């Protein structure tokens, strides 16, 4: 498989999107394995991680692929589960089960567990960042379409300056987070991945706030998909350190080094 072949990558992306929109739960897990997710993670992680995790966010699907990323970075490829730190000092593990459990959410089978052995978290943070960017773009798309379709006072909602500013600020936050993630992907570094995850988490929270305001009351309803993306963003932001926690950690790292390292060459 070659990352230099855009046509092949597009075919893979189309197959992944079809799988994520047509299957869920264990069926989606099996579909991703059949499509060669683990092989892509081992051979072309710089392309596979952004592609798969952004699609998870955009489609609203969910799969335990974060386990694979962290295990691969820890030198234990092949799948499985690994305890991961969650905001608040507790640890969680992603595991599907048909039994009633203490999962944080039915759509996100994340269970609290005892702390595991320390593992490298840079790649996992970058992967979560791409997932957050994907779900942020999904929220922006929902809000944008609503603004175009909704008419108030005889004018499309999108014609009001306040609405346009909310959508523009959301887009700027998402594009900035994606640029930070791309820099961390091009030159992997623990601090770069930490900052990228923090930027993606902040962008997702910004998207959730602004898009909810644009959608108004309909965004609160169970029938609308926005609440699913907001809930997803809040959970993913907390995994491997929230945006606030990681920002503080980055400041501490800079103080200890005595200088701010160059993370991107402009």
Automatic annotation (TrEMBL):
Keywords: FAD, Flavoprotein, Oxidoreductase. Pfam families: Acyl-CoA_dh_1. This is Acyl-CoA dehydrogenase. The keyword Lipid biosynthesis does not apply. One of its GO terms (cellular component) is cytoplasm. InterPro entries: Acyl-CoA_dehydrogenase, AcylCo_DH-like_C, AcylCo_DH/oxidase_C. One of its GO terms (biological process) is fatty acid beta-oxidation using acyl-CoA dehydrogenase. Residues 121-243 form the Acyl-CoA dehydrogenase/oxidase C-terminal domain. One of its GO terms (molecular function) is acyl-CoA dehydrogenase activity. It comes from the Bacteria.
